[in-house]
Records
---
Amino acid sequence: MPCMSTSAACWTAGQPAPYLHLARTFDLVEREKGKIKTTAMLCNMFRSLLALSPNDVLPAVYLCTNKISPDHENMELNIGGSLVISAMEESLGTSKSKIHEMYKTYGDLGDVAQECRQNQTLLAPPRPLSVRDVYSTLRKLSAISGGGSAGRRKILVLHLIRSCREMEMKFLVRTPVRNLRIGAMMKTILPALAHAVVLHEKCSTGPVVSLEDVKSQLQDLLVPSLLCEGATFAASSLAMVPGTPIPPMLARITNGVTQALKLFHGRAFTCEYKYDGQRAQIHRLTDGSVQIFSRQMKDSTSQFPDLVNMIKELCNSEVASFILDAEVVGIDRNKGNRLMSFQELSSRERGSKNSSIAIQNIKVDICVFVFDIMFCNGQRLLDNPLRQRRSYIHDLFQEKPGYLELAQQLIVEEDEASIDNSSTLHRMSSFFEKACQSSCEGIMLKTLDIDAGYSASKRCDSWLKVKRDYVEGLGDSLDLVPIGAWYGNGRKAGWYSPFLMACYNPESEEFQSVCRVMSGFSDDFYKEMKEFYSGEKILPKKPVYYKTDEQPELWFTAEQVWEIRGADLTLSPVHHAAIGVVHPSRGISVRMPRHIRCVPDRSPEDCSTATDVASMFRAQTRKMEVSSDGPGAG
Ligand code: ATP
């Protein structure tokens, strides 16, 4: 029987993989800063798992990325630093005050635990932990609720801590506090896993799969689909399954219809209203049930019982299963189907994980505007061009105005798609104006035939957005993450003000500062944030992956996303957003920023990226150069 023992712990085929195998790899990855080498290390780890314990690959992917379930299962780990510290005190023979003191020096609970364990004399070697032990214990922890749950959780954490060997302690303790500090997010894990799959298939003389195929399928589907138990790793078997959300396709920003038309020159495209609501991915499963997923791929079915009924009632019952992309918008049916703003829609009750809101308690009615279809009756449609995909939608349901409608659209055919065609520009500008008058955020433009597939999880050039705010010169808004703050003065004494805001750079996995924000907040909001950013959410020092020349008095863990709008964008010697992209040593900053709202359904890594900030900056520069020649033009 083959046995694996490189950097890894030794184990034989068919046996559960030791957690030490992961911990040793994490340790190597933590020390190595180069992306290529860390990917190779992770790839080797996955290869050994594929060869010896394939059932441990999924738990390992979860443990590497600090998850315990696919996002749409809405499972939370439910343990915080204080429980871990209490278990450390009991199992490592170090008092809480000593642990807190050490934490101030190390800035990391995992390092503290590792140090305490090294100073401990054990009577007998602990029973080895396996990958699946750790993973299943974390899932159990998440399921514990009700009276005495803190005590029951602590027993499980104690069991894990007591069983740790070598550097296992460091990573095991970091897991519940959600910071492995190995920079191994999905972006690093996916290529490593894809390489491992291809090499594994080659060695086991299975079907020959190309790296690009595996990569793109993993990118599209891995997070939700592959992480569902039972999926295997042969690229051909990475199937789409209704009930498992697809990461949504996203659009690029443009500064007006003129620029958008230039970008789509010579290609047929559709313009659609960009509704100001909440994205909804609607799944009908073969058993007739309906599930709704948010932009974050969270199950939001319980929030929309009325939408579920509409789909059941209005969709063609001969189509057994489908996955639709749509926007749910608040609607006032007593006022001629007036569309409401996103804010009005968000005042609607949310429902909970286990129970839907009652239909009779619904205060804000909704209309759903369907704009895409990704799966129909067992057929994956991602690679079909949009024009074809849209024909599937037409066969799927009868529109019912004010309830279920197709997104309003204007088609521009290939021979009309030219900036020199004034009639096209005029039609598009009027369409844009009509969209704005109908309370929409602007319009979306999408290629119909060329490069017109549904690129799950990607922000693509084949989807463009023209937003009213931008065209009106107010500046597009950014979704930014508070990463630090100063203590407020005067009226704001006792609260935090200003906050330091950052965008995310997925390439370097860094949060890069964009601006300080100190306006747009209510007093209640200040109070709420003072309570929210406390305890473990305050970091002892600036993390290496926060990039800025600012020195706030407090550093926060990346938790929330806020919509921020400013006058315009400018180069900055202090802020690091998109540094090196539009200027070799300067980043981009927002001038006169103000807080618009919190964006609760977005995770910090899903905020505006450095590329978004750079594109907005470039678009602004171009806009200044191009003279306006009509509404929406620019
Ligand atoms: P934004 O903050 O501008 O809404 P985003 O990052 O959520 O952007 P984008 O792909 O950039 O996503 O913009 C499209 C968003 O607009 C979608 O997420 C969706 O919620 C919404 N939307 C409204 N109408 C449409 C439409 N017809 N087609 C696609 N998306 C639409």
---
Amino acid sequence: MRVTMIGTGYVGLVSGACFADFGHEVVCVDKDRSKIEKLEKGEIPIYEPGLEALVAENVKAGRLSFSLDPAASTPKADAVFIAVGTPSRRGDGFADLSYVHKAAEEIAEVMDGYTVVVTKSTVPVGTGTEVEEIIRRARPDADFSVVSNPEFLREGAAIEDFKRPDRVIVGAEDERAQKIMRELYRPLYLNETPIVFTNRATSELIKYASNAFLATKITFINEMADLCEKVGANVQEVARGIGLDGRIGPKFLHAGPGYGGSCFPKDTLALVRTAQVHHSPTKIVEAVVEINDARKKKMAARVIEACGGALEGKTAAVLGLTFKPNTDDMRDAPSLDIVPALQAAGAHVRAFDPVGMREAEGLLKDVEYVDGPYKTLDGADVVVIVTEWDEFRALDLERVKSLMKAPVMVDLRNIYRPDEMAEAGIDYYSIGRPR
Ligand code: UGA
């Protein structure tokens, strides 16, 4: 199959490289000249484990290439994917669809012969119909189908998620489009991955409902963690105890500082707005959005409390800045709320993140960025674990204690056990567990 992928952001680049690896001929298109030039030189603009090698391999095999011009590959393509950004619109939280609309216009200009136009970007219900109308208006005689095929990959595990997904969702109502989609996902089909064919609106909603459900699960366990702290219970054991019930499941029950990233905050908000517009408000998701925003803001108070109620003149060592490990993505990261709040309380903040520091520098000011966890801790009054990078999981606790001015640790990801910290003589605070 021949594929054009419009947009070389996270989803576009990973999907393009994986489709090429499935054996298809893929051209990834982007307007950003510097991005395309970099990709042509084998440089990957995002941090994603395994992506650089996958791109290099498929470029070498002649299955993957990059272009500034959608006209170069679209006329011959069997499927053209729209994988452009859908950020929150400033002010009202709706998904901003201007890039999607623009892509539809561009595709309409150059498509030739039967083409399946696929929205892979996360788009509100009804967007497929809008894309269809835009193309139909520009090219009344064109032969095409518009399909919804949302992506469920996680940053940091994107390739694995694409190649071994729990399911593939395809919103395609006509036989011809279904056939092409089945062919594109052929290797997964052979692996017996469920490929769910449904109508377009259902497929579009499945994406938002999935993300909102996962965000709700996290928010639920975070609230349970708060309650655990009040009643002397242990949230990790609560999560295990409920997760063993097959109807609940063990995943996404890890309590922490609140979810962040480029998807959950944006998608929950967009779902809230869509539901309001259709006079069918989703009160649960509205509450989730509100609780999570408040939670991220409240995290710094834990640090202040751990330091005896005052941070003035103290040094806080922050380990991890990105919204989760294995990514350089800082979008809606809890650190963006925590660090300024520590500074506002009078702390000097010293921070380290294994790959996110360059991104962080532009967003978090007056922070002393240092190289490595032990340099961060040196002379600090408190250490705060904000992101659970693997390299923070096995710190030499004797060294930690000897380097710090006061051995106080606030672990917002529960990567240590309270008993090992007590034994090491570190004053340890975590989430939802007895001290
Ligand atoms: C999320 C979904 O997991 C993907 O399925 C989806 O495709 C993607 O959004 C998207 O819509 O593009 P991602 O944002 O990369 O993926 O990250 P997650 O691993 O889901 O984590 C999101 C946030 O939830 C992080 O801040 C993480 O720390 C937090 N989280 C996750 C918890 O606090 N507890 C958990 O148990 C799990």
---
Amino acid sequence: MNIPIRQQIYNDAEKWIYQAGELIREQIHDNYQIDTKSNVNDLVTEVDRSTEKFFAEKIREKYPSHFIVGEEGYGDKVDSLDGTIWIIDPIDGTMNFVHQKRNFAISIGIYHNGVGEIGFIYNVMDDVLYTGIRGEGAYRNSIKLPPLSDQVNIETSIVALNSSLACENSRINEKKVQQLIKDCRGSRSYGSAALEFAYVAEGIVDAYLTMRLAPWDFAAGLILVNEVGGVTIQANGQPVNILEKNTILTTNKQIQEKLLDNYIDLK
Ligand code: IPD
Ligand code: CA
Ligand code: CA
Ligand code: CA
């Protein structure tokens, strides 16, 4: 993607993210409609939908040739990585949004011919914007993030994962996950995949492991983590498919091998 065009897209996306964040904050105490999706704990609200619609309208007006992949159905049916694609999660961490009124993010990854060009993860209530620009680095509120530490090992690492992975489950050997929780310095579960990616990029969490993420959950985070020298792969070590659901391990490279070899045993 040529640099002036990328800069223009960056500027527009950043402006729209701040506008959408303001709209979300204005509605945070409203009596908005809450529905469920695949199960009773899978929540979606009117605010998720209106936020995605806001982005879809802005993008279609300014960039009619671009494609949109979004969680809430305002996007396009996209089955090829050709062209420019905006991959949008209007609210990542809807359960946190509803129950905690914090700890959720807007996540937007912009890809051109399959290459991640720009990633945005906006922690709406903290007003912290993480950005990643291919080849330029990752930033937290415009301050450049340093490369990830080369001094991390399992014993000194903080690992984010869904606590359900440590319970009996059909996807992963829970005994190994329990061992990981014992062996690492601390485990965390933030409830927003996008923020978990941002924390890995920031180096305040050393790895994030999860069994099923959609493109809108990881599209932005993958770009950020790349830019600080981290790596994002499927939990079986294979590359991530951008347009599909994937298991995900995003991590400091120092512990990638140990995690895959000693602690991740897929069923
Ligand atoms: C969810 C959150 C959650 C993760 C789920 C996602 P949503 O996204 O990121 O932390 O465990 O897999 O679906 O539905 O709140 O956008
Ligand atoms: Ca959802
Ligand atoms: Ca999500
Ligand atoms: Ca969402």
